Amino acid sequence: MDDKDRQIIAALQANGRLTNQELSEQVNLSPSPCLRRLRMLEAAGVIRGYTAVIDEEAYGLPVTALVRIRLQKHDDATVAAFEAAIADMDAVLDCYVMTGSDDYLLRVLVASLKDYEDFVRSKLHPIAGIAAIDTSFAYGIVKRSTVFPQGKRSG
């Protein structure tokens, strides 16, 4: 991947609805080479898909919970069961494997604090092997970006 590919990616991250003509103009390529590069990025799995960015509150899910999970043990069966259960939960938008004292960090969207309580009681509590659940609620967003940083990259 070269700088031109990164320009294509940055332009699409900022606006995934660009036509190939608009994209080629933004990255200073003619349309055919631009489309060829785009198709190669898609085929290589660098571009995994296209989506719309939706306002959570306008959609009706104004409560963002950041949930830290610690497992009782870390054997293959416990980890696999936990990860499979989380993968099936629509309210969990992101699940990160973490270093430090917590094993996982979840980003959960719900409509209300009552819905969060129901989520914990009906979805998280039944998962065997959870030692601790610690939740923080986001009450504002300072920065959110869909565009990767353009600084120096290793590799």
Automatic annotation (TrEMBL):
GO terms for molecular function: sequence-specific DNA binding. Pfam families: AsnC_trans_reg, HTH_24. InterPro entries: ArsR-like_HTH, AsnC-type_HTH_dom, Dimeric_a/b-barrel, Tscrpt_reg_AsnC-like, Tscrpt_reg_AsnC/Lrp_C, Tscrpt_reg_HTH_AsnC-type_CS, WH-like_DNA-bd_sf, WH_DNA-bd_sf. Keywords: DNA-binding, Transcription, Transcription regulation. Residues 1-62 form the HTH asnC-type domain. It comes from the Bacteria. One of its GO terms (biological process) is response to amino acid. One of its GO terms (cellular component) is cytosol. PANTHER family: LEUCINE-RESPONSIVE REGULATORY PROTEIN (PTHR30154), TRANSCRIPTIONAL REGULATOR AZLB (PTHR30154:SF34). This is Lrp/AsnC family transcriptional regulator. It comes from Sphingomonas sanguinis.
